[in-house]
Specification:
By secondary structure, the protein is of the alpha+beta class. The protein has 16 helices and 21 strands. Strand 16 and strand 17 form a beta hairpin. The protein starts with a helix and ends in a 12-residue tail after the last strand.
Length: 596
């Protein structure tokens, strides 16, 4: 017997009990003739899904509101229920929140099940080892430089990168390469949903980026990229590169100097944790564009900082001041098919565009500002932003060095009075007490820096080299005079330190006799005087070899004296091997004898 819609409505209104209908398989597998949220048993006849299957497609983001609008468009006038109630029935949801959650699940599977995907490993087709080494700063993509004959041309040797950009990156979904150490070192992906690269060299001329020029063999060796950031430090223990431990510092905290590493260029991207957000779906596309196409292929930017991966998750990268940023815009189509339950698929990627990030507070092309925008839009958390800010510390003056100070403190190395505080158990001879009220506080003296500072004379005569003395660091009042260690008897160069005057004289005479025996007049050309360029005592010198006496002391040629005993109150003489160095017990200028 066949009932019309009107007759069926009458029968349902007379029925005094629910008609249970078994759920069908799949998400939302529930018949329209059962309404789990409404006991009025209103009719759903004439609505989509009542008698036949249907399909809807829509462009843009995948979410409940987009699906609702698409279903609304195909409802006929005979469907007398609102679209929210209809969707709850189609999805098998008990309320609006459940319906939205089910749509979110369907959108996720729409991306994972799409035929529009492309594997990151197929970009180079050179294998996991090659890809790993590239992102750590290796392989010929990073190393080779074109020569003047045109060999090793980057755009030829990496021409596949351009084909991937044209054919795949703008029309497919590329996955983030979690098989790479730089992007999944702990098998948990990128912790704060952000990644960036930092390059230190430019290897391609003629692209208006960096300072590589032609001819290549003279104008493109160790050239710089466009400078947009400063390195602060690298913690090797967290690096995605093959470095087991340690750290690298790129700042001079003592002298308040930053940007001492030279030109570097950093660029990155970020995404929301929602797997249906465009920034998340196309994060592999963004990595390809930033790291391989835009910067390596188009600009020629290559190589990594010491101890850091070239590209990686933000929490594993070198600590820097800032990074540029690229965000994704995509035109895409989703299709939802209903046949007793919903099935979904990302059916078409029409166009993927790579744009400069629009950041919070009108700060564009800046990774930190873009991340703040994600936080403002509810797509990221404030906690993750604060973690990112420990890696992108800010470009304001002083922030990089402050990050260095904080990092060193985390390693147990703290500062006091502008210097490093060092344990009393690690005192070395190049330290001086900086606060006698706190005898355990010492300052490291950088002799090289002191010499450079003293040498900055604006064209005037060079000053004497600053020199210091080796002292014991016992408490005040208990200092003991340093006693030189007795050298090995096998060390001929040091025997004069322990010789008596008579022994030294005998050695000197023996050496003179040996020299006279080996001397030949034939070795001297006619009319040539021996040692005619040697300087007399008192003349200015830098090396002992310039002086007739063989002794250059305090930059003056000095008369050679054999070491002798003294009363220990004024100064101690060392061997000639010490380049005439002295140590004064009265303080003043010191000389270790090793500055040369």
């Amino acid at each position: 017997m066949k009932f019309t819609s009107a007759a069926l409505l009458v029968l349902l209104s007379l029925c005094c009990q629910d008609v249970a209908v078994a759920s069908s398989s799949g998400v939302g597998g529930r018949s329209l003739r059962q309404n789990p949220t409404d006991n009025s048993h209103r009719s759903l006849a004439g609505c989509p899904g009542d008698d036949e299957d249907f399909s809807v497609s829509f462009d843009g983001d995948c979410d409940y509101d987009e699906l609702k609008e698409a279903v609304e468009d195909i409802k006929s006038g005979s469907c007398n229920v609102n679209t929210d109630t209809l969707l709850q029935n189609l999805l098998g949801a008990g309320n609006d929140a459940q319906a939205r959650d089910k749509v979110k699940q369907l959108c996720g599977s729409a991306v994972s099940d799409t035929s529009e995907g492309f594997d990151f490993s197929d970009i180079t087709k050179k294998g996991e080892q090659f890809d790993n080494e590239y992102y750590e700063g290796g392989t010929y993509f990073n190393y080779e430089i074109e020569n003047d004959s045109g060999d090793h041309r980057l755009k030829n040797d990496a021409s596949r990168i351009n084909r991937i950009y044209q054919d795949e990156a703008q029309s497919r979904v590329i996955d983030l390469p979690l098989y790479l150490n730089a992007f999944d070192p702990d098998q948990d992906g990128c912790e704060i949903d952000a990644a960036f690269c930092c390059w230190v060299q430019d290897r391609q001329a003629g692209d208006n980026n960096g300072n590589c020029g032609t001819p290549y063999e003279s104008q493109c060796i160790d050239r710089d990229p466009g400078d947009n950031a400063n390195f602060c430090y690298t913690d090797h223990t967290r690096s995605g590169a093959d470095v087991q431990g340690g750290f690298s510092i790129f700042g001079n905290v003592l002298n308040n100097q930053e940007n001492i590493e030279g030109a570097i260029h950093c660029h990155g991207f970020a995404w929301g944790p929602d797997e249906n957000d465009v920034s998340n779906i196309y994060k592999g596309n963004n990595l390809f564009y930033v790291s391989l196409y835009d910067h390596m292929h188009q600009r020629g930017y290559v190589r990594n900082a010491p101890g850091s991966a070239m590209c990686g998750c933000a929490e594993n990268m070198a600590v820097v001041t800032r990074a540029d940023c690229t965000e994704i815009e995509a035109d895409q189509t989703y299709t939802f098919n209903y046949s007793g339950s919903f099935q979904s698929v990302l059916s078409k990627v029409k166009k993927v565009r790579f744009n400069a990030c629009q950041g919070a507070n009108n700060r564009n092309n800046d990774l930190e500002a873009y991340y703040k925008r994600l936080v403002n839009e509810g797509k990221q958390t404030q906690a993750n932003l604060e973690k990112l800010q420990k890696t992108l510390v800010g470009a304001e003056a002083g922030k990089c060095n402050q990050a260095i100070v904080n990092f060193m403190a985390s390693k147990g190395i703290s500062r006091s009075n502008g210097a490093n505080s060092i344990s009393e158990n690690t005192i070395t001879p190049d330290m001086i007490i900086v606060d006698e009220s706190e005898p355990k506080i010492f300052e490291v003296v950088d002799n090289d820096y002191e010499w450079e500072k003293a040498s900055n004379t604006a064209g005037k005569s060079m000053p004497l080299v600053a020199y210091d003395v080796t002292e014991d660091f016992a408490e005040k009042g208990t200092e003991e005079e340093e006693k030189p260690e007795k050298p090995s008897k096998d060390d001929d160069d040091e025997q004069s330190v322990t010789m008596t005057d008579e022994e030294a004289e005998l050695v000197f005479q023996a050496e003179e006799a040996a020299a006279a025996e080996n001397y030949s007049e034939d070795e001297v050309e006619e009319g040539e005087a021996l040692d005619e360029d040697l300087k007399q005592d008192g003349a200015t010198c830098k090396l002992a070899g310039e002086c007739e006496s063989g002794l250059c002391e305090k930059q003056k040629c000095a008369e050679l004296d054999i070491a002798s005993d003294n009363n220990g109150e004024e100064e101690d003489m060392f061997s000639i091997g010490g380049i005439g160095a002295t140590s004064s017990s009265k303080g003043g200028v010191n000389n270790t004898g090793d500055w040369w």
